[in-house]
Amino acid sequence: MVEQHTPRSLIVTFYGAYGRAFEGPVPVSALIRLLGAAGVDAPSVRSSVSRLKRRGFLLPARAADGSAAYELSREARQLLEDGDRRIYGTPPRSPEWLVAVFSVPEQERHKRHLLRSRLARLGFGAVAPGVWIAPAQLYEETGHTLVRLHLTPYVELFRGAHLGFAPTAEAVARWWDLASLAKQHEEFLDLHEPALRALQSGPEPTPEEAYRGYLLALDSWRRLPYADPGLPRELLPADWPGDRAAGVFAELHARLRDLGAAFAGP
Predict the structure, then answer these.
(1) pTM of this prediction?
(2) What is the pLDDT of residues 192-239, one digit of tens each?
(3) I need a labelling partner for 127 at 20 to 30 A (CA). Which of 61, 107, 157, 197 fits?
């Protein structure tokens, strides 16, 4: 299986992993060097940075030496900080549910599509048209997202228990595509568990090898805590691969992240 990493995704992953540690904006020359170590050529870096600038993720700036550089927008920093809790943390799984109920006027139906797509990206499952559900621990991040996208006038949020009528495990299997989620975890394991075994039995990687390995593993992993939003373990199949995938990423993080920082530093 060949893993696909787009230049734009790798740039976002770089800023999440290492870019925020820079003192000031990240010079374009550093971005080209550091993304080049992950197999991205300079023209692809420049075009992807331009797209991220148009989306408001990156802002043009100047490095200390006056060279061209880019810094994160305020919204991008909030997005990455929200992501930290999902990607690196193990927040307690809430026994309660967060329910989003929304109604969007027909003349603003483009916002209806935006709302559905963002709830899906946050990890919500669809209960019915205009009714979406997620574990209650996603409340704060959901609020940040709805405020950032100016969608709060269309949504009401509720928190509580599932009272029936189907058993909750059966309902969860309707609200989320658990087979697809399990496959994503298994694909991550197929790609990155062998790399972890090689690290466990081989010599310590160089800082550049650690940086490249960590950036690629993180770029793969960071989507999974959104697709799989931390559903209560007792509601999932007994052979659920998510715990093993999380363990593999946690060990890769522990072995590679700080060693890679020696290469990624300014």
Answers:
(1) 0.86
(2) 999 999 999 988 999 999 999 999 999 999 999 888 888 888 899 989
(3) 107
